[in-house]
UniProtKB/TrEMBL annotation:
Its EC number is 4.2.1.136, 5.1.99.6. It comes from Allorhizobium terrae. Pfam families: Carb_kinase, YjeF_N. Residues 223-495 form the YjeF C-terminal domain. Homotetramer. This is Bifunctional NAD(P)H-hydrate repair enzyme. AMP binds at K411, G412, A413, D414, T415, G440. K(+) binds at N63, D123, S159.
Length: 497
């Protein structure tokens, strides 16, 4: 999985290792802190030139050191600055101590800060490395500042926000702007962290990329740079079967709409042929409402096996409106040697029987199974992982992908796409108006359409999630699932990432 550094996310632990290696390589660590603090002061002056007072809240570690440097730079620029410190600044160590000693302005304890109209708060209490819950006095100050709607510029990450999971511990500043250094952390992209950070500025403070590269993990932002090389490419010799045949299974007569949404999305995503495989009772209603999508009677396991004799059937979507129960389980297991998107009712059918599913697909290398659960479906399929409060969304998706030998698309405003090998992508192009009935059915169809065209499962899932967001942006607020399916387009990548 080849990725560009700008899109790769660095965990707090990895960033601490980067800082250590930078210092060991001979780079002046105080110089790095000075660059960081000056970047914060520049952002404050650029974004809030009319602030009447800049209150810099400095913590007991290196994040506080960044704050002291920013405060001195602002003071030298003629700004009314006051530092409010947490703990005894005399106990600061190393670079943070040097930064404190260089500050020549006003200084008061953090408990004495009272939000005032015209203030800008610069939050330098704790950065991304916060590994514990905040103490009650700090919680009270953060809540008071948030309640007063005083603008906040955060240094590295809003204090109280877990840099790995994006969850408050237990509260965090609501920043309007965050300045972080070298690379974003998962907490900048995962919800609710993404919303709490405001706009995020990544400032390069001079650490060589070779050091950053040595500590990169497997988590990145979902961008075309990850999968653009795997996108289907049309040639002059292409015809419908070379573009793949997607089959979407329909539910009974009263629940056919979801499958049709998936089928249309798969067709729009570029599959050469799409068939709705429906029970006899649903043939008429599906036939009456489709034109380019074909309809085929597939009633039971016997007729499914007959249907699978045609090896040109290259990918399948099972779950949207299909119904929960034994039939869904039997169909899914019959497809273990095929490319399969398991969604909605297909996932819920394996509640309390997940090990049957995992065992059937355990030997597929590479995996051909993509599962697309929302939070409730995830908890049904992976109950032990879901209830583990020590894991963030990325870690849950990674654990689920590993134990199921499947690509797991853990849906939401911050959809995570995870592979059994540990690779994970966080999506961030999805607008909030995607939260509408039928949206997930469209996503399943897009991924199925890409699988049908020959994309590997991880890349198809990631590209499908991105295409889903792009289609929603194309339609705009107020979309329905029908609008969304109609707006799906094959991706045309024009920008070099």
């Amino acid at each position: 999985m080849k990725q560009r550094s700008f899109y790769h996310l660095i965990t707090p632990a990895a960033m601490a290792a980067v800082d250590r290696d930078a210092a060991r390589s001979g780079i002046d660590s105080l110089g790095l802190m000075q660059k960081a603090g000056q970047a914060v002061s520049a952002a404050a002056l650029r974004l809030f030139p009319d602030a009447m007072r800049m209150a810099v809240l400095c913590g007991p570690g290196n994040n506080g050191g960044d704050g002291y440097i920013a405060a001195e730079a602002l003071r030298m620029s003629g700004v009314d600055v006051q530092v409010f410190h947490l703990g005894d600044p005399a106990l600061l160590k190393s670079d943070a101590s040097s930064a404190f000693l260089a500050y020549r302005g006003k200084l008061r304890p953090l408990a004495e800060y009272v939000p005032c109209s015209g203030d800008l708060v610069i939050d330098a209490l704790f950065g991304a490395g916060l590994g514990r819950s905040l103490e009650p006095p700090v919680v009270e100050i953060i809540e008071a500042i948030n309640a007063a709607s005083v603008p906040v510029v955060a240094v590295d990450l809003p204090s109280g926000l877990d840099g790995l999971t994006g969850h408050p511990r237990p509260v965090a500043f609501q920043a309007c702007h965050t300045v972080t250094f070298m690379a974003r952390k998962p907490g900048h992209v995962l919800m609710p962290g993404r919303a709490l950070c405001g706009s995020v500025e990544v400032f390069g403070i001079g650490i060589p990329h070779r050091i950053l590269d040595a500590h990169r993990g497997e988590v990145a932002v979902n961008t075309p740079s990850v999968w653009e090389g795997s996108l289907p490419k049309l040639t002059g010799s292409a015809y419908k079967f070379t573009r793949g045949h997607l089959t979407v299974f329909s539910g009974p007569m009263s629940a056919t709409g979801a499958a049709r949404l998936s089928a249309m999305a798969g067709l729009k995503a570029g599959a050469g042929l799409v068939t709705l495989a429906a029970p006899a009772e649903a043939l008429a209603v599906n036939s009456a409402q489709t034109t380019a999508v074909m309809v085929k009677e597939v009633d039971d396991l016997s007729t499914l096996r007959d249907y699978l004799q045609d090896t040109r059937m290259s990918a399948f979507v099972l779950g949207p409106g299909f119904g929960v129960g034994e039939k869904a389980r039997a169909f899914a297991l019959a497809l273990r040697d095929r490319k399969l998107v398991l969604d909605a009712d297909g996932i819920s059918s394996f509640k309390d029987k997940s090990q049957d599913l995992f065992a059937y697909f355990a030997k597929n290398v590479p995996t051909q199974l993509v599962m697309t659960p929302h939070e409730g479906e995830f908890a049904r399929l992976f109950p032990e992982i879901a209830k583990d409060q020590t894991l963030g969304k990325v870690q849950k998706a990674q654990a689920a992908a590993k134990c199921s030998n499947a690509i797991v698309v853990y849906k939401g405003a911050d959809t995570v796409i995870a592979s059994p090998d540990g690779a994970a992508l966080i999506n961030e192009n999805a607008p909030p108006w995607l939260a509408t009935a039928g949206s997930g059915d469209v996503l399943a169809g897009i991924i199925g359409g890409l699988l049908a065209q020959g994309m590997p499962a991880f890349e198809a899932a990631a590209a499908g999630v991105y295409m889903h967001g792009e289609a929603a942006l194309r339609v705009g607020e107020g979309l329905t699932a029908e609008d969304l399916a109609a707006a799906v387009r094959p991706l045309q990548i024009e920008t070099a990432f």
